[in-house]
Amino acid sequence: MVSPRFRAQAGIIVAMLGALLSASASADESSRIAGPPSTLPIASDPTVLPSDPISISSRYGQQWVDPDGTKIVLLRGNCVIEQGQRRYEADQLVLFGSMASQPGDPTQVFAYLDGALGGGVHIQTPGHREQIARDHIELVTTGKFEIFVPPDAMVEIPGSNQRAIPTLSGSNERVVVRAIERRNSTLRRTALSIRTASQQLPALPSPGFPTPVSTPRRRLTINPRYIAQEPSVSTSVNQAVTPAEYVITVTNGVNIVVDNVPVQVGGQLMLTQIDLTADRAIIWTDAPASSNQFAFDLNENTPCQVYLEGNIVARIGSNEARASQAFYDINNRRGQLVNAEVRTYLPQIDGMLRLRADSIRQLSESNFHARNAFVTTSAFGRPGYRVEGADIFVEERFDPSGRIDPGTGMPSTASPQITALNTRFYVEELPIFGLPYVSAPAENLQVPFERLNFGYSSIFGATVHSVFNVETLFGFDLPEGVDMGVQFDYMTKRGPGLGLNTDYDVDGHLLGLPAHHEGTSKLYYLHDMGEDNLGRDRRDLAAPNNRGRAMWRNRTDLSVDTWINAEVDYISDRNFREQFDETGWDRDKDSETLVNLSHQFGNGQFNALVKGRINDFSDQTDWLPKFDLFNLGEPLFGDALTWSSHSSVGYGRIQTAEAPSDPQDVFTPLPYLQDASGLVGMTRHELNAPFMLGAMNVSPYVMGEAAAWGEDYNGDSLARLYGSAGIRGSLQFFKALPDYRDPIFGLNGLAHKSQIDFDYYYAQSTKDLDEIPQYNEFDEDAQDRFRERYIPLEFGGVLPPEFDPRFYALRSGAGRGVADPYFELVDDQHVLRLGWRNRLQTKVGPPDRPRIKDWMIFDLEGTIFPNADRDNFGETLGLINGRYIWNVGERTSLLASGVFDVFDGGQRIWNAGVLTQRGARGSLYVGFRQVDVGPIESQLITGSYSYRMSQKWVSTLGAAYDIAEGRDRGESLTITRIGESFLLHLGFGFDVSRNNVGIGVSLEPRLGPFDATSTQLSSLLGINR
Where does the sequence pass through the membrane (predicted)? Predict the structure, then answer.
C-alpha cells in the first residue's frame, strides 16, 4: 500500500520548480536596480527624511557589547520599527551600532529583521505592503532614536530608580548568528567592490532616458561562496552584437543573493529571497547603468542569461534545489537544470520531499519537463522504494469550470497539470508496477496505486490485491474532499475482481439548506470459479459465479443538533462477506439499508427511521417507518426527582433468514424469530429520587412501561404492562498510606480505593417473555449466523432455555434501561445485583512530577435471585464474574478474568496470563483460557510475541493449542523489514479449522519517525498506549 503522504507531492513540486526557475527569472528581471547598493536605504527613501526620529518597540529585549566593542541589542516579540512613513514588523530584531555622540550627529544602526518564527517580515509604506522571510536595513537619523520595552521586561539600574533593558549576552542565539553573517557579508561586498575597481567594466553609451525603478526594489549582488576565499572575476564586452553584450565570468566560488523576489504562491504575489551558489558562473547581459558588476539592477527589457556550474545550490525559504549544471534565459523564460534534485519540506511527515531528475527544463513561464525523474521522501541518493517516470510534464491548463481561486478570490482561469509518461514503481531495482500514462491536477496529484498486496493461500491460490487512484489513473478532477480508488484483484483459485471505493467529506446542500456530507461507498464484483471454505464442516460449499457487494454509508449534518444517516448495503449471497471480508464480517456493523433522521433538543432526542431488508439471507426487521422520542435526566421539583422516558411507535415486519441452498451449510431458524408484521408501540418512564444517606449515595426508583404489538407469532395482537421498583446505591472507601515504601514491588506510597454498589429491584410483567415477538434486533448478523449452525450441531435442533440468548439478556438486565432499544427483553424478576470494586494505587515517575498508577485492580460482581426456580434455573447465585490485574512493574502485568454460572450446563469461562511489554523492543503474552458451556469444552494455551530484532527487522509470532481436544488451533508468523520509506511484511499463517496455509507479502508506507512515539511501531509490537 502506498503512503497517502504522496498525494500532495506534485503541487509542492510545481511550486518549488516555479519558485526556483520562474522566481529566479522574475528576480533577475525585477532586480535590475540602477546604481550601486545604497548604504542609507531609509535616508534616501522619499518616505523617510534624515531628521525623522526612529522608534523601535518589542515585547522583550536584552543587550550586550561584542568583544570588538560593538553594542548589540536583541529584541523579541512584536518587533516594530517606525521612521517617517515607513514601518517594519518582525518576530525578532537584532541591532548593531551606537547613539550619536553629539546632538545633530547622525545615529547609524544596522538592523537585521527575522521572521523565521512564522510571522515573516512586513514592510509598509503609503499604499504598499509586502512580506518577506528576513531583511536587513541601515537606520540613519539625526533625530531621536528610542527603544521601548514593557516595564515588566526591564530591570532596575542599581543605585537609581531607573529601569533598563537587561544586560545579557545572546551571541550564541541562532538569530544573532544569522544577523552577524548578514552584516559581515554586507561589509565584505563593500570592501570587495573597492578592491576590484581596476576590473570595473568600461562605460557604454546610454540612451539618455532614466532607468525606471520598480517598486518594491529588487537587488542582485554577487558575493564570495567561501568566507576565506575570494572569487576570481573577469569581464569582457562583445561589440559584435547590438547592443553590446557584457560577459561576467566568476570562478573560485560564487554566491548570488537576490532580495525582494516576487513569486506566485497560491495565487498571491509574495516577496522572498533566493540564494544561488555555484563553483563557477557566467552572466551575459546588456551594459548596466552602473560600473559596479557586483551589485547591479536589471529591468524587464534587459537581456540576461546565466550559466552556473559545479555544486549548484539554490534556496528559497525551506526549499532547496541542487544541480551540477544550470542555464537560464530570463527573457524567454527558458532554462535547464542537469543532474538536478529539488527538495521541499512536508510538515505532514516532518521530512523532506525530493524530486530527482537527469534534467529539468523550463519550456515557458509555466511549463516544465523533467526527464528520468523520481519522487521520494527518502534521504538516500537512490532509495530502495520510489516512483519513477521517464518524462514528467508540468503545464498550465485552462480551467473551464469557473471555480473561484481561494487564494485570490478571483475566478480560476488556469491550473497546473502534471502528466507522467512510463511511470514505474520500484522496490530496490525491481519494477513492481508501471503505467504508460498518468495525468492529474498538480494540487491533487496522487500516486497511481494506493494498495498493493501479494500472497498465496490454499483457499484463494496466488493473489494480487491492488487499489489505484481514479484521479491519477484516468485524469479526473474530483471535488475537494473526495477520494476514489478503483480496485483490481486476481486470485488464481477464485477469479478476477473489480471494485470502486469512495470516501468523501464535503460541504454542500440538501433541499436548499447548507449541509455537510461525510461517507463511504464500495462497489465490488467477483467472477468466482471456486468453492467457499468457511471452516470445519464447511470447507467445500458451492458458490455462485457472480458475486459482489454494493455498499453506501452517509451522514449529513444539517446543523449541530440535526443529522441524517443513510445506508444501502447489498450483498450477492450469504457467504460472500464471511469468505472475502472476514474481519469486517466479525467486527463491522451489520449490512443494512435505512434512512434515519435525528434531532437533539435539550435533554431529548427525536429519531425517525425507515429501514428495509434487501439481503434475504439475514434476520432483520423492516421499519416502515419507526419514530422514537427520548428524554433523559429531566429534573422535577428542583432536583428532588429525575425523570427519564422513551416512547416509540412504528410499523415493523420481521423477516427471517432464508435457508442456504447447499445442504452442507447446516441451518436451523432461530426459535425466537418468526415472520410477523404490524404496529409496534411502547412508552417507558422512570423516576429517580437520589439522595445521600450519610456517605452512601442512594437512589430509589420506579419504572413503568406500556407496550403493544399489532401481531405476535400467533397472528394475534398483544399488549403488555411492565413495572418495576427498586433502589440502587454505592458506598466508597479510601485509605492512604503515603509513607509505605517497598523497592521490590516498586511501591512509593499506597492508596486503597474501594467501592461497594448494589441494585435491588422487583419487576412484574403481564406477559411472559416467550410470548413477546422480537421485533427489535439485539445481536449482530455474525452471531445469529453462528447460532443458526450450532443449534443443530450441538443441541440436536432444540435450543435449551439455559442457552437461549434472550433469557441470558433477561438475567443480565440488558433490556431494563429506559433507552435500551430492545425493550422486549423484560419479564417477572426479583433480583439483587452486587459489585465490589478495588484499586490499589501508587506513585511512579520523577520526584518533582510523580503520577498515579494502578498497581492492582480487583473487581467482583454477582447476582442473587431470590426466586431462583423462575429466574435462574434453580440456583440463587449466578452471573458471577471477576477481573484481576497486577501491574508488577512498568513492563509486566498478571491478568485474569472469568464469568461463572453454577447451574448444570452453565457457563464456566476464565482465562489467566502474563503480559510483558518492553517499550520499543517488543511484547510477550502467554495465557490459558478455559471455555466450558454445556456440550462445548475448550482449554486453550495461547502465546504471542513481537520483537524488534534490530533497527531494520521486527518479528511477530502467534500460536494456539487446545489441550481438551489435543488439537492445534493455528499459527501465524510475520517478519517485517523497516525500510527508509516503507514497511515490507512477509507473513505465514496456518488455519486448522479451514486447513488453510497462507503466505503473504504486503507493502505499508512508513509514516513519520520510527521511534518510541510511533503508533505504527506500537501496533507492530503489540504495545498498548
Answer: none
